[in-house]
Amino acid sequence: MAREAGVSKATASRALQRPDMVAEATRQRVQEAAERLGFQPNAAARALTTGRTGLMGLIVPTLSNPFFAPLVIGAQQAAEDTESHLLIAVSEYDAEREAALADRLSEQADGLIMVTPVGSDAALRERGRRRPLVLVDRQVGRLPAVVADTVAGLAELLDHLLALGHRDIAYVSGPAGSWADEQRRAMLTARASDAGARIHVLGPLPPTFDAGIEASAALPDAATAALAYNSYLALGLLHGLGVAGRRVPEDISLAAADDLSTLSATTPPVTALDVPLQAVGTLAVTRLHELITGHRRTVTSRLPAAPVLRASTAPPRSL
């Protein structure tokens, strides 16, 4: 390939592995020769030359929840754009398993993305000192993070319910140890109190359909509206309320903190937050690539989540 481009082997290697070190005309000539010959750089050789493997570790809490699928798609596309490959592992919301997976991936990958990690702040800080690390939907000090701003989006949903006249609102919360859930609960409680309303917290609960069904039977009698931590809980609530003969929104309004495609097709369609998950995955990989290539940023990027108002929310019957 070097002979085809008319350069030395060392120059050809630099043009492919460190293009910033060669002239643009030379880089283009080598690239064109590589394309004509169908040349693909050897990953092992690249690792020896650059100290990087081209691999990124991505740890997600579960793949059974479709919430994470768009995030993985966005991350995969961004990895391809940076000529990297993803190694994906599933922690199942278990801190010990999460740590073991992170240790294992760190032996192969140039850096890690950890989605809604449940490990301690101290453990994540230490991991960030040892390896490039980007957090998703979790903030720890000055570690780089990408956060879908569901807290601000839920504040808008709460304001919507308050404007409709609801003053007793149930929050069906998420899993124990969830940083995002803690942020949401604190905001909802404080904002409702400022408006002279009350938040009734149920949980912590696993973000599952069955947990939503169980929660539907535990809603306080005073609650005229319910906010669910995620779509699965909202679907379970909708089903459980229907079985119990309680109508949405006539008897109780319902909204969710993310928007699965099925929520727009339920009866009634459920008010929810449109969370830009694919963009979150893309930006997380971009931030990690910046760290790996020496552009260190201690920054938290927030992507807005916007309410989508549907027929599941209405004024309470007493109004």
Question: Could you please describe the fold and organization of this structure?
Answer:
The protein has 319 residues and is an alpha/beta fold. The protein folds into three domains: 2-50, Orthogonal Bundle (434 Repressor (Amino-terminal Domain)); 55-147 and 276-304, Rossmann fold; 149-274, Rossmann fold, CATH 3.40.50. It is 43% helix and 18% strand. It has twelve helices and twelve strands. The chain has helices spanning 2-5, 9-17, 24-37, 43-50, 69-81, 95-106, 121-130, 150-164, 179-194, 209-216, 231-243, 277-292; strands at 55-60, 85-90, 111-115, 133-136, 145-149, 168-172, 198-202, 225-228, 253-256, 271-274, 300-304, 306-308. The chain has a six-stranded parallel beta sheet, with helices on both faces. Helix 2 (9-17) crosses helix 3 (24-37), helix 5 runs parallel beside helix 12 (277-292) and helix 8 packs parallel to helix 9 (179-194). The radius of gyration is 24 Å and the shape is elongated. The N and C termini lie far apart (78 Å). 42% of the residues are buried. The model has no long low-confidence stretch (mean pLDDT 90).
Our count of domains comes out at 3
Shape: elongated
Question: What characterizes the major β-sheet?
Answer: 6 strands, parallel
Quickly name the level 1 CATH class of the largest domain: Alpha Beta
* Class of secondary structure makeup: alpha/beta
Gyration radius, rounded? 24 Å
> What is the straight-line distance between the termini?
78 Å
Based on the coordinates given, report the CATH architecture of the largest domain: 3-Layer(aba) Sandwich
Organism: Streptomyces kunmingensis
Protein name: LacI family transcriptional regulator
Pfam families: LacI (PF00356), Peripla_BP_3 (PF13377)
Keywords: DNA-binding, Transcription, Transcription regulation
